[in-house]
Amino acid sequence: MDTNEEFRSAIHKASIFLSVDAGKGEGAQLAEKFGVKGYPTYLVLNAAGETIDRWFGYGTPDSFLAALQGAVSDPSTVAEKHARYLESPNVYDAEKLGDIYTAEGDTEKALSMYRAAVELNREPNAELAGKIFYTLASGYFKEAVELDEVQAGADAVLATADKDNTMPLVQVARMMGSIGNKAGQPDLSRPYLLAALEATEGTQEPDMVAARRLLLLEKALYIDHDLKTALQLKRDSMPEGWKENASYLNSFAWWCFENKVNLEEAEKLARVAVELAEPGNEKAMILDTLAEICNELDNCGEAVEIMQAALEEEPDNEYYQEQLARFQEECNT
User: Fold this and answer.
1) SS (H, E, C) 28-50
2) Which residues touch 167 (CB under 8 Å, ≥6 apart)?
3) Low-confidence residues of the chain, pLDDT below 70?
4) Can you give the pLDDT at residue 4?
């Protein structure tokens, strides 16, 4: 984003932009103070250090600018927004508070405000239905929401689908694929995948074309159970030059591991990625992928050695310590 001139101009006009590494030093203290639970998280503060707005996740420069401009146009603090809503309930404040509570990771409060916005709006609203679904889905992964609630949220998105805005359908289809996997019910995504594919058929919009490719990949995996086609679609979805990029190689290898397909090639590509990776976090992460693949190929001894190498890159990483212990235990049973 920092190479986008419009973005840079808006940042300097509207605010003082401070980029913080929340993983160390003062950054870690700030992350704890403001309850940051995911990255990237953006906070807009006033001169007194009070929160005006917050959001998280990667996006386009346009989406970031829209969020920033919204915060600048309403510089009231979160507490003031809440007080204003209690005094005079309205759709804008309810939805905005829902967005803020979502960014804070407070599923219960976010759902309460989004549902209040739906009641106040009194008409079907695809965007609100999408936000409710996303919050439910996030809550499900945190084991704070039941599966039937998530399905009801997904069904609400289908019911409010807008033919001129197919992105909510695409997002629901993708998310329900992940939820179906977690629940051990891969067919759970079927109605949402089919609806999204129907809605995007014939699209010429570049983002939708790319999204549709991923939907077709998931259809091959979860509905058709056609691993050969899914593997080819995965290859086709990779960016140009991906075999010379450690991150892309790792992403492909991990996909193969997760879906238990093409593991021999995945092992070779992960080894190439290890050689290309920068020392430290990146190399450790790819070594973890390689260890999982080796273990899946019944080579737990090498998996142990690889995890030991990962810990040399990140000695204090508790997850890698647990991984090493798991592989050692599996080798001894």
Assistant:
1) HHHHHHCCCCCCCEEEEECCCCC
2) 208, 211
3) 1-15, 22-23
4) 56
